[in-house]
Amino acid sequence: MKNALITGITGQDGSYLAELLLEKGYNVYGIMRRKSEVTYGNVEHIKEKIHFIYADMTDPISLISAMKISQPDEVYNLAAQSFVATSWDTPLGTADIDALGVTNMLEAIRIVKPEARFYQASTSEMFGLVQAIPQSETTPFYPRSPYGVAKLYGHWITKNYRESYNMYACSGILFNHESERRGKEFVTRKITDAVSRIKQNVQDHIELGNMDAKRDWGHSKDYVNAMWLMLQQETPDDYVIATNETRTVREFVEIAFRCVDIEVEWSGEGINEIGKDKATGKEIVKINPQFFRPAEVEILIGDPAKADTNLGWEREIPFAELVERMVKNDMKLVAKEIKAANL
């Protein structure tokens, strides 16, 4: 029976990965930051099956202790300040966790158990101002946010430890992946939550930023399987994990509303664009300039050919089903809120 240590275990990816590893018979250890109130987030339903360790990515001593306690065969570093917009507000904090935190974890592995296999959660945001379409493992990086820059450091330090110390360390360059467990501060979940509230007359409209931004969206459940596959190979390497399809934020909005039988009709351009309910004429989508990034990433689309070939990775959940799952889940959650408020 293998031991696995997961940082960021209470997040979207951490929870799906924990479920996957438990199904495969692993002893799962998860790092949690000490808070005044203990919250298990997305692993609340499996918390009894997980061994939790209090540690912090900015505290090397605590990570060394976590390594000694868990003695992991595999380490998955999913901990991050992962909200791009916030990285402009807290650039140093983002760097502490997303850049130096990776080094802290790698050093803890090197000191305690250098034979452990390490997975680093890299991101398509490292491509930023894209230098090629689609983006692959050989595409030059050009990050456009403090988040992307910090993640690029984490990506390269992982490669450096692999080459310097012969450690089994690899990075998954994951493109946008969402799910029912995504936090509401992310645009996809913001959309599906708002669609559910508008449908159930709890909210009038949603305000969004750049509707023309294009992203390559997949489901988190498929993507954590790719993480596991990377650590099962004979030789460590880095892989792009994506769908090779791109869609605008506008398309995501249209499909989400369609899931609740609302057809969006657009008018105007730029910040004056408005989306109306075609049946009623009610304004349900508005543009708010405050939601535009200081430096925009216009298009991301990944080429997963290497992962498909070398890992045998397959995607099971297509884009339309991803959106439908998120909307259906939020419809249920909003209905529960309404019922509770009326009691």
TrEMBL record:
GO terms under biological process: 'de novo' GDP-L-fucose biosynthetic process
UniProt KW keywords: Lyase, NADP
Reactions that this protein is recorded to catalyse: GDP-alpha-D-mannose = GDP-4-dehydro-alpha-D-rhamnose + H2O
Functional description taken from the UniProt entry: Catalyzes the conversion of GDP-D-mannose to GDP-4-dehydro-6-deoxy-D-mannose.
Annotated residues for binding of NADP(+): 205
CDD domains in alphabetical order: GDP_MD_SDR_e
Enzyme class: lyase
Organism, scientific name: [Clostridium] fimetarium
A Pfam family that the UniProt record links to this protein: GDP_Man_Dehyd
Annotated HAMAP family: GDP_Man_dehydratase
EC numbers, comma separated: 4.2.1.47
NAD(P)-binding domain: residues covered: 5-326
InterPro entries cross-referenced by the UniProt entry: GDP_Man_deHydtase, NAD(P)-bd_dom, NAD(P)-bd_dom_sf
Superkingdom assignment: Bacteria
UniProt xrefs under SUPFAM superfamilies: NAD(P)-binding Rossmann-fold domains
NCBIfam families: gmd
GO molecular function, one term: NADP+ binding
Official protein name in the record: GDP-mannose 4,6-dehydratase
Reported cofactor(s): NADP(+)
Family per similarity comment: Belongs to the NAD(P)-dependent epimerase/dehydratase family. GDP-mannose 4,6-dehydratase subfamily.
